[in-house]
Amino acid sequence: MAVGIRDVAELAKVSAGTVSKYLNTPTRVAPATSKRIKDAIAALGYVRNDAARQLRAGRSRTVGLLAFDIANPFFIDLAHGVEQRATTHGLSVLLGNSDEDEEREGRYLDLFEEQRVHGVLVSPIGSIDHRIERFHRQGIPVVLLDKMGDPALSPSVSIDDVAGGYMAAAHLVSRGRTRIAFVGGPEGLRQVDDRLTGARRAVADHPGVTLEVIPVHNRDVEEGSRVGESLLLRPPHQRPDGIFAMNDRLAFGLLQTIVTEGRVRVPDEMAIIGYDDIEFAAAAVVPLSSIRQPREEFASAAVDLLVSEDMSLDVPRHPQIVLQPALVVRASTSQAR
Predict the structure, then answer these.
(1) Domains assigned to the chain
(2) Which residue blocks in the chain are alpha helix, DSSP H?
(3) How far is CA 221 from CA 166, 218, 257, 284, in A?
(4) What is the pLDDT along the chain (337 residues), one digit of tens a residue?
């Protein structure tokens, strides 16, 4: 037979209410009483039925975090930051990866709804306004990640990727590059479109500089390597002398291929900058310049927004936090021509 709170209370010679208070807010129980309850729990092997408690409360202490590309180290770092911040609020994190699949995204959102999570942090593929409305009807707040939403519906935390794209391309121009290539895709993905928009604006501000768009289907090291191989097949005068890769994984593949082949010197003949400034950027074969996203600030802001939304679901306008990226210069762009 399962051991219950009343069994613990009887052994500790306290009321069931005192045991419940110890389990939920131990600081409100006298130290001597806490010790008796703790000893009774250990002696009886009592395990708290948290699922039943959450069912009675109608909400869990778990946050649902749904990323659209967990293979990207940026999202791994973000998940770590979210977990750290959530812990300070007494919350745990349930992580899902939609892998840019809308059907899979829907299944995870269904799971979060069924679990009656405390709140949802989601980096959506497209519009999920109808899902947000469903969550709100159940008193579950939603915060959009890396995408601005409808201020009347939900708060969001995002990065100004237009500014980041401008910063990356303008940096290449400042290094004397005039034939710039943007490597990224697919078109229609908000992060891709915004970074490309910023790069185009930077090029437009500098007459004589051109921008070539090299579309990719994937945003990983292998795809970057493939692009690098294709660029090496071009005559020297048709190659870009500056490359803006939309993320660091693409940039790594480009760097690895170009440096290994040895026919084009980086950064003398071809400067390369990535985006995200993931942990391994500084350890690349040629340390990679990158646009840094403020991951820690991003994660903290998202969790704090979610917790504050818990008490303000009916406000007329929800906060839309936009964080600014920063340029990190390393050897892959460090020499001017």
Answers:
(1) 5-48 (no CATH), 60-160+295-324 (3.40.50.2300), 161-293 (3.40.50.2300)
(2) 5-12, 16-24, 31-44, 50-57, 73-88, 102-114, 129-137, 161-174, 190-204, 221-232, 248-261, 295-309
(3) 23, 9, 10, 12
(4) 678 888 999 999 999 889 888 887 778 899 999 999 999 988 988 877 655 555 445 567 899 999 988 888 889 999 999 999 999 998 999 999 999 899 999 999 999 988 889 999 999 988 899 999 989 888 899 999 998 888 888 999 999 999 999 999 999 999 999 999 999 998 888 999 999 999 999 999 999 999 999 999 899 999 999 999 999 999 999 999 999 999 999 999 999 999 999 889 999 999 999 999 998 898 888 999 999 999 999 999 999 999 987 655 567 788 999 999 999 999 999 864 4
Kindly write down the DSSP assignment for every residue of 256-297, as one continuous string: HHHHHH-SS-TTTT-EEEEEE--TTGGGSSSPPEEEEP-HHH
- Collapsed DSSP state (helix, strand, coil) of residue 61: coil
User: The tokens 């943007």 sit on which residue?
Assistant: 182
- Radius of gyration over every alpha carbon of the chain, rounded to an integer in angstroms: 25
What region does 294 belong to: left with phi over 0, alpha with psi -120 to 50, or beta?
beta
* Nearest alpha carbon to residue 218 among 5, 72, 73: 72
For 188, the token pair is 């229609």
Integer CA distances (angstroms), 250 to 6, 214, 317, 330, in order: 59, 12, 38, 17
**Cα–Cα dist 63/143, whole Å:** 11
**Residues 203, 230 contacting (CB under 8 angstroms):** no
CA 290 to each of CA 45, 243, 247: distance values in angstroms, whole numbers, following the listed order: 53, 11, 8
The whole-model pTM stands at 0.81
The first and second tokens of residue 284, run together, are 């690349």
